[in-house]
Automatic annotation (TrEMBL):
Keywords noted in UniProt: DNA damage, DNA recombination, DNA repair
Gene name for this UniProt entry: recO
Function, in words: Involved in DNA repair and RecF pathway recombination.
Source species of the chain: Chengkuizengella marina
Family annotation (Gene3D superfamilies): Nucleic acid-binding proteins (2.40.50.140), Recombination protein O, C-terminal domain (1.20.1440.120)
An annotated GO BP: double-strand break repair
The keyword DNA repair appears for this protein: yes
Keyword Lipoprotein: no
One GO cellular component term noted in the UniProt record for this chain: bacterial nucleoid
Similarity comment: Belongs to the RecO family.
Record protein name field: DNA repair protein RecO
Ranges for domain DNA replication/recombination mediator RecO N-terminal: 1-78
A Pfam family annotated for this UniProt entry: RecO_C
């Protein structure tokens, strides 16, 4: 059967001397694996539309589990994103989130649009860490692991100004319940408000956000701990992202 869909390339695998297998994420059909014959060759008409992050319209034939790419037309290539190693590592983490957390053929127009907006904003130079945390919240919600941030996860009472958090339980705790649990973290109230904002925000509406480094670091560590506890996936792209950030930080320290 012949299909014509819009999709974002979330994974590529070289196959043989000149071929590629690409995985695209679509609104209606979720993840689709497609063989792109000859796509590794520079002069191939399929080369440009089989690059990671590419948003294009794909025409492919599918009879069994894997389709065969016939043609396609790029809508946005994200060429600049691929040329910037710092930006591309964050983008790689976002597409890995979709690839590894979404079930096969599980489509979501909302996740598709949020992913596309995230890639666009990272390429345009908006803070990739903030975009990443917002998108992580979307994926956690889809997977049923969204953190409880408005009320006490233990007793259900409203929090007031309390800002205690249990990664293990999966949410915030009031003052009276925090003493009953182990591994409870006291977090800055500004960090908690930021997490609530991330949970509710549509990435398309993201404007300029000025956040101090201590708050950004606290949020990063909390999100990292939460993802590792509740999703428990060894993210390949996150390791690369950490190495790039470490190298960049060391370079900036040496210049001071």
């Amino acid at each position: 059967m012949l299909y014509k869909v819009e999709g974002i390339v979330i994974r590529t695998v070289d196959y043989g001397e000149g071929n590629k297998i690409i995985v695209i994420y679509t609104k209606e059909m979720g993840k689709q694996s497609i063989m792109a014959r000859g796509a590794k060759k520079l002069k191939s008409r399929l080369s440009s539309i089989t690059q990671l992050f590419t948003y294009a319209e794909y025409t492919y034939y599918k009879k069994g589990k894997m389709g065969t790419l016939n043609d396609g037309e790029a809508i946005r290539s994200f060429h600049d994103l691929n040329l910037d190693i710092f930006k591309s590592t964050y983008a790689a983490y976002l597409v890995e989130l979709v690839d590894r957390m979404m079930d096969e053929h599980e489509g979501s127009s909302y996740i598709f649009e949020q992913l596309l907006a995230s890639l666009e904003f990272i390429e345009e130079g908006k803070d990739p860490q903030i975009i990443t945390h917002i998108f992580e919240m979307k994926m956690l919600e889809l997977a049923g692991y969204s953190p409880v941030l408005i009320e006490c996860i233990a007793c259900g009472d409203q929090l007031g100004d309390s800002s205690f958090f249990s990664v293990t339980l999966g949410g915030t705790l009031c003052y009276k319940c925090k003493s009953k649990e182990q591994n409870v973290k006291k977090i800055n109230i500004r960090s908690l408000k930021l997490l609530r904002l991330f949970q509710e925000m549509n990435i398309r509406r993201l404007g300029k956000i000025n956040i101090s480094d201590p708050i950004k670091n606290e949020v990063k560590l909390l999100m990292r701990d939460f993802m590792d506890t509740h999703v428990n996936i060894n993210w390949k792209s996150r390791y690369v992202m950490d190495q790039i950030n470490k190298t960049t930080s060391n370079h900036l320290e040496q210049k001071k």
